[in-house]
Each structure stands twice: as structure tokens, then as C-alpha cells.
Amino acid sequence: MKYQSPRGTQDILPKDSKIWQRIINTSKEILEFYSFQEIILPIFEHTELFQRSVGESSDIVNKEMYTFLDRSERSLTLRPEGTAGIVRAYIENGLHREPKPVKLWTYGPLFRYERAQVGRYRQFHQVDAEVLGSNSIACEVESVFALSKIFNTLEIDYHIEINSLGDEESRKSYKEYFQKYTKGFLNDLCEDCKRRYEQNPLRMLDCKVKADQEIFAGAKKPLEFLSGESSKTWEEIKSLLGIYKDKNNRPIQNIVTNPNLVRGLDYYNDFVFEVKSTSEVLKGQSAICGGGRYDNLVESLGGPKTPAFGWAMGIERLMLIVKEGIQKNISISFLSNQEEVFNYSNQLFEVGKENNLKLNIEVVYNPQNISKQIDTALKKNADFIVFYLDSEKVKNIFKIKNLKTREEIECTNQVSNIIDVLEREYNKIKN
Ligand code: HAM
After folding, report:
1. Which residues of the chain does CATH 3.30.930.10 include?
2. Is the CATH code 3.30.930.10 the one for domain 14-167+227-319?
3. 124 C-alpha vs ligand 1 centroid, how far in Å?
4. Rounded alpha-carbon distances, angstroms, from residue 201 to 186, 198, 227, 403
5. 35-65 pLDDT tens trace
6. pTM more than 0.85
7. I need a labelling partner for 227 at 20 to 30 A (CA). Which of 167, 250, 270, 276 fits?
């Protein structure tokens, strides 16, 4: 039997893992700059957690969860998103007693039974960031800034769509209006929207069925129903976002209001946003990040009243548009028939680190056929070969071959000398 990976899953092969690391490392560096701390959570949770948080009216809970009974007949679900688990952990571990805001980030796999296609998978990964315990609009503003930094560093083209759903009062009046507006069309709407009409009419605006969209096109939008408080906050956020300048003092131009943006999960209030890639590659799956404010979730899951804000970005979608980048490891094949080579390679790790050089080393011990080893190093796209064979040992030297320029350099056999040569030669390759 020939095994294949299950539909909607994919292997990230070594040739692509540098891009993966670039995405994670860039996010981590920027999130840590903004004082987020990493949290690592289970991949499955009690099913009820997602039903109560993501919401009964969402597609995720209705159609997409991987739910199973374990051997003790407990209903468990592979997490379809990260926020619910973070909030559960926040309450369960008493993190709400720590100084606020508590800023947490995580990354890992999520599972949704979706129609698999380019950029949409059944197992996918997110970088997720949550700020718990703050109702300050600094959350909204800093998140947009942090994400701009991440996506600018990753050198991709994007724009940010923002909207406000309003507080409870605003959403209540919009719900009343929108139910009245759609009542006459109920028979023409898709089955999902018929359900949403009762459970959460706002979610109808997110419907992908064209005929339904045409019906909703003439309706007023949630922005027109904001309460006084929500409207003030919305205006303040927009004005602060307008002052963001990049390092050349240019304002970011790529923030737009999308009055139809409602997001696919039930827990949001007020500010919501999505980052969309402008790349053709992603076709219909252009959302690379989404999030918003969720001031009622912690309380509804049994914690104290806690305003909160967060977002998550999809790593697989970014993998399709991010390039490897210029930060490159120097890869070395170390050919030797001398025992000391193992000691030297250990020292190279230490000295490389002290000099801020990222090295990958492959020791080839007792090479039988030197020219074959050189060929292999070339095929593996190594940058250098360091020789320490009998002839080098006698002379107390290392011989270093730059595989890009084919030059050979000799230096006395101290590891710091290898590092000096590598640095000098690597700069030559780069320039
Ligand atoms: P979401 O919009 O469902 O939000 O997902 C966030 C991002 O995950 C999407 O923008 C997309 O890049 C990626 N994504 C979602 N589904 C898939 C899929 N099937 N295949 C590949 N990528 C996917 C949330 O999950 C919220 N928990 C975000 C949040 C955090 N809100 C507040 N805090």
C-alpha cells in the first residue's frame, strides 16, 4: 500500500523550513519587543470550550471541528483556534492575578475540517498573540504597528482592513435592524444564513454566497449603529493609526475601513481587523491574519470580567508568499581523518556564536574519497569545505576552500582563525 498524507495536510520539507523559521523568528523577535511572553498549550481541549467561545453560530463549531470521544467517553476536540485555549489557561492558572495586561503569544497547529485548497488546510499553523486585562486602545494600535513591522520585515505586500462591530448596545440595535431588513428575504437565503438569522444575524454579513451578498448589499452596516462610547473609541483608534510612520517618516497608507468585515468567530466586540495579502498566489485565501477585541470571553468562560484583544496569523499562507530572505547560515563541510575534528566542531559552535555567525556544520569523518565528498558538498550547496587531513595536521593548519569562488586559504589550526577566514570570505560572496 502506498501511503499519502491525509487530505488538507502537508509536509514542510527541509528546502522550505528556512522560510518557516524566518516567519516564526521574525514574529517572535517583534512580539518580544512588545513584551509578549510565550505560552505553550495542549492541542486538544474539551469540546464545550470551543462551543462556548468560538460560538454555536460559527461555521467552525457547526461544521469544521475534529471532535472525538476518548476511551473514557469524554468529548474532546482538536483545537480549531488558539484564543479559547489561551483564555482557559489564563483562568485555570490564575494568570488573571498577575499585573495587567498579561501579554501572551504562542504558535502551533490548528485543525479545521474545511474544503482543502491552496492556502486552506485541515491542519494549519498560526502565530497567535493575545493581550488580556486591558481595555486601552493601545492594544489595537500597537497590534497594527507590530503586525506592520512583522509583514514589512518579511517583505510582503499587504493591506489592513479594519471595522468596528460596536459594544453590546450597538450590536443589539444592529441585530434588531438587520433581522427586520432580512425577514422578507428569509426564504431566499442559504441554509447557513437561515440559522444565523436566529443565532447571530451579524454573521450573515460574512456569508460567501453571492445571492445572499446581493440581498445584504443594500442594508446599513454595523458602523452606522455604534453607541456613543463605541463610536468615540473607533474614531480615536483611527486617528492614532493615522499617525503611524515608518523609519523614513512615511505614514502607512495601507489601512482601509471595510464596513462588511465581521469575522468568523462569535466572541468579538468593537474593533476587528484582517490583514490581506495582495499576492495573486493566495487567490481566495488572501487573509493572512485576523483578530479583534473580545471583552466578554474571559467572563463567559468562568473568569473575572477581563477586557481582551488578540490576533492570529496563518503560517502556511505566509509560506506561499514569503521568500527565504538574505539572512543566511554559513554551511561548512568539515573533512577530516583526525579525532580532534570533533573538538574543533564544538569550538566552532561557541566561537561562531560569540561572533554572531550562524553556522551549519557537517563533519565528514574519515572521508574515503575526497573528490566525491567535494561533489557532495557542492550538491548540498555548502559554502565552505574545511580540510584537516594528514597533510594539514603535519603543518598545523586548516585548509579552507571557498566553494563559491573556488579559492583555497590556509590558516593556523585555531578555530578563531577559521572564523576570521569565513567572515572575510563570506562577505566576498555576499558582495
Ligand atoms: P481566524 O481568522 O479564524 O482567527 O484565523 C486567523 C488566520 O489563520 C487567518 O487569517 C488565516 O491566515 C489562518 N487560517 C485560518 N484558517 C486556515 C486554514 N484552514 N488554512 C490555513 N490557514 C488558515 C482566529 O483563529 C482567531 N483565534 C484570531 C484571534 C486571536 N482573535 C483574537 N485573538
Report:
1. 14-167+227-319
2. yes
3. 9
4. 12, 7, 18, 64
5. 999 999 999 999 999 999 998 878 899 899 9
6. yes
7. 276
